[in-house]
């Protein structure tokens, strides 16, 4: 029997994937259990949720008893229209990519392990920005497990491969092996495993870096022969900035976001400087919640100007917004 999970459940599931504290995880798990359809097709998933809730409650209690001093991993506030994390082996070009796509100035050197902490930057695209996170390298011997929370809670992963070195293929395999030994994996789409609610998949792109260097084409042929990676891929040179426009476009496509501009009822023009951004499929009520919780609670209707409606149409909260819609909320 199919689960037929609702949009509300998937929204709670996404919040759970991005939770950074035991309290947040517990709140999201309880919300998932409330939102899940109750029928035979979800019996196993309900049982798994109840088990996870029980474990989460124990973790919260332990944290309280220890005075809340237990580490909750790396905490970096989310900013912009989405979060994209860059991972890879030593010298794969992660810091160079961050520097080439943002105004961040990470330390860049021709020796491994230059990056020791997560470094953020903001990538501009049209009238929005996307948060990029550079991370320490992953190897067979070195793996900061705090990165798992960052990968799990990100909207997209850029898995960099060094085609400028013979070791690049082995480094890619090491990254895949290390993640394969955890419950945080990479895939074409982000999701939680319905058979194991703790197993999380984050959508990823295989970024083939240093494509401009000698023998890069030969190394790419070897990679495709010996390593099977079921991810969309793109070829770039972070240093020479080759392919970065295409990479940026692909990132925006994978984030699948829409921009909404708000307008006050007593104003003729919308605020086009700072659009609200939400995942495709979001509704007017979702926009109202982003503006302010009180506005969402007192939402009556909204007038909408955009590609999917007649200009100024009066619509209910369940209307699915389109990119560049102008919204005038009434409470």
Description:
This is GTP-binding protein HSR1-related protein. One of its GO terms (molecular function) is GTP binding. It comes from Pirellula staleyi (strain ATCC 27377 / DSM 6068 / ICPB 4128) (Pirella staleyi). By secondary structure, this protein is α/β, with parallel strands linked by helices. The protein has three domains: 7-65, no CATH class; 83-255, Rossmann fold; 257-330, Ubiquitin-like (UB roll) (Roll). The protein has ten helices and 13 strands. The strands form two sheets. Strands 1, 2, 3, 4, 5, 6, 7 and 8 form an eight-stranded mixed sheet that branches. Helix 7 (216-226) links the parallel strand 7 (196-209) and strand 8. The protein is globular. The model has no long low-confidence stretch (mean pLDDT 89).
Key phrases:
GTP-binding protein HSR1-related protein; Rossmann fold; 331 residues; alpha/beta; P-loop_NTPase; 10 helices; Ubiquitin-like (UB roll); 5-stranded mixed sheet
Form type:
globular
Radius of gyration: 22 Å
For the record, give the distance between the C-alpha atoms at the N and C termini, rounded to a whole number.
41 Å
CATH class descriptor name of the largest domain = Alpha Beta
Percentage of residues assigned to helices: 25-40%
What count of helical segments does DSSP give? 10
CATH architecture of the largest domain: 3-Layer(aba) Sandwich
Q: Which residues sit in consecutive blocks of at least 5 with pLDDT less than 50?
A: none
Any idea of the CATH topology of the largest domain? Rossmann fold
Domain G: 83-179
GO molecular function: GTP binding; GTPase activity
Protein name: GTP-binding protein HSR1-related protein
Biased composition (Basic and acidic residues): 55-64
């Amino acid at each position: 029997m199919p689960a037929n999970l609702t949009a509300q459940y998937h929204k709670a599931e996404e919040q759970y994937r991005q939770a950074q504290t035991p309290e947040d995880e517990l709140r999201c798990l309880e919300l998932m259990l409330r939102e899940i359809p109750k029928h035979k097709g979800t019996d196993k998933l309900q049982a798994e949720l109840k088990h996870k809730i029980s474990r989460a409650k124990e973790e919260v209690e332990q944290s309280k008893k220890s005075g809340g001093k237990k580490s909750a991993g790396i905490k970096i506030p989310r900013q912009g229209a989405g979060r994209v994390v860059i991972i890879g082996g030593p010298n794969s070009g992660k810091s160079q990519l961050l520097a080439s796509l943002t105004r961040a100035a990470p330390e860049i050197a021709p020796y491994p392990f230059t990056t020791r902490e997560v470094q953020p930057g903001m990538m501009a695209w049209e009238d929005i920005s996307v948060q990029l996170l550079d991370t320490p390298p992953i190897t067979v011997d070195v793996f900061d497990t705090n990165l798992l929370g960052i990968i799990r809670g990100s909207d997209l992963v850029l898995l960099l491969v060094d085609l400028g070195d013979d070791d690049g293929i082995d480094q890619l395999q090491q990254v895949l092996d290390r993640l394969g030994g955890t419950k945080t994996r990479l895939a074409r789409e982000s999701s939680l495993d319905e058979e194991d609610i703790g197993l999380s998949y984050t959508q990823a792109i295989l970024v083939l870096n240093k494509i401009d260097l000698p023998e890069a084409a030969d190394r790419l042929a070897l990679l495709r022969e010996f390593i099977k990676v079921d991810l969309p891929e793109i070829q770039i040179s972070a240093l020479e900035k080759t392919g970065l426009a295409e990479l940026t476009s692909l990132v925006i496509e994978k984030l699948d976001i829409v921009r909404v501009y708000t307008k006050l009822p007593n104003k003729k023009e919308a605020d086009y400087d700072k659009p609200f951004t939400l995942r495709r499929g979001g509704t007017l009520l979702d926009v109202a919640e982003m503006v302010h919780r009180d506005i969402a609670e007192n939402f009556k209707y909204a007038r909408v100007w955009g590609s999917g409606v007649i200009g100024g149409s009066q619509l209910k909260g369940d209307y699915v917004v389109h990119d560049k819609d102008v919204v005038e909320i009434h409470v």
